């Protein structure tokens, strides 16, 4: 062990005439540990929020969506769909017909976004149909057009020539709780796209039977998304053989914007694309800003602990003035004395940082594994607090902690190096 490190270690372990110095040193270690642990936990939470939100957004929705710019929808979509499926970087494509509706059961109702889909294609671009927690989405498989059913008679009801069972619908768990519906229950879907009659505009409505209830854990989808067969959605909106969007899954989701431009170019004039990054840009920007602000605020804890280190080392220099003078009278250079107190402050910082890292990663692992902190999904979009600690965060936090602590040792170590042996030992 080097001479300077040996003396610094002895000063930390030795009994002091002034107990307050030892107390301040212990507080400094605890302060550094608390600051580092807080930073690790806070960064793990923000990383977890970003990771889970991104995973659920990307898993629940398509990477790229293609739609008409100035039209009600896409007609003659089958040849276009087959053409775009063969593009480079496109791994899957699915047609869809969106529409805003009101879903009710008895006196309870809620607004929803209904999507007509072909399940085999939809499962390739999104995971919502694979997250059915109650019932099944198998009933959404297409049926022969001659099996189209007639809904309950009423003003504005769609026309049909055959009678069959009520068509199926898959709804989100939160929406099901809002309207009080379960698997097997009938719900009434009302579309604002009605028919013009002598009595005015009459909304179109259709009865559906709840075949399944999905739970993605993402409130935006669980509270408002519903799925029906594409043919049933076209009848509800009175739009035969029309879709509103073609959804794509690509091989590199972080280049969805570039691939979207290629899809847009291949589709021809009059089409435009959006991607998951554009649709959620503000969300991820807010999460990034929150991460930076959290780091700055909690780094102040480390700064406070560094002030404690400065006070502890300053009092240590005052207490050890006689010992410093004796060492210097034996030939110890001023640079060596400075390194003794620099190393002492560094040891306090290293001990506190290691304890903080172990504590922070331990609590983060427990929080991520047991998910014991629950959230209000209607506010935070997810129903539990996620933790995602990263090794890179430990490097940054440890560097900041050691750097700030090292700065705090500059003044007391400099004061120790300026001690004059003759002056310090004059009255000894």
UniProtKB/TrEMBL annotation:
<comment type="similarity">
    <text>Belongs to the ABC-4 integral membrane protein family. LolC/E subfamily.</text>
</comment>
<feature type="domain" description="ABC3 transporter permease C-terminal">
    <location>
        <begin position="296"/>
        <end position="418"/>
    </location>
</feature>
<protein>
    <submittedName>
        <fullName>ABC transporter permease</fullName>
    </submittedName>
</protein>
<dbReference type="InterPro" id="IPR003838">
    <property type="entry name" value="ABC3_permease_C"/>
</dbReference>
<dbReference type="Pfam" id="PF12704">
    <property type="entry name" value="MacB_PCD"/>
</dbReference>
<feature type="domain" description="MacB-like periplasmic core">
    <location>
        <begin position="25"/>
        <end position="265"/>
    </location>
</feature>
<keyword id="KW-1003">Cell membrane</keyword>
<dbReference type="GO" id="GO:0044874">
    <property type="term" value="P:lipoprotein localization to outer membrane"/>
</dbReference>
<feature type="transmembrane region" description="Helical">
    <location>
        <begin position="391"/>
        <end position="411"/>
    </location>
</feature>
<feature type="transmembrane region" description="Helical">
    <location>
        <begin position="292"/>
        <end position="318"/>
    </location>
</feature>
<feature type="transmembrane region" description="Helical">
    <location>
        <begin position="339"/>
        <end position="363"/>
    </location>
</feature>
<dbReference type="InterPro" id="IPR025857">
    <property type="entry name" value="MacB_PCD"/>
</dbReference>
<feature type="transmembrane region" description="Helical">
    <location>
        <begin position="20"/>
        <end position="45"/>
    </location>
</feature>
<dbReference type="GO" id="GO:0098797">
    <property type="term" value="C:plasma membrane protein complex"/>
</dbReference>
<keyword id="KW-1133">Transmembrane helix</keyword>
<dbReference type="Pfam" id="PF02687">
    <property type="entry name" value="FtsX"/>
</dbReference>
<keyword id="KW-0472">Membrane</keyword>
<dbReference type="InterPro" id="IPR051447">
    <property type="entry name" value="Lipoprotein-release_system"/>
</dbReference>
<keyword id="KW-0812">Transmembrane</keyword>
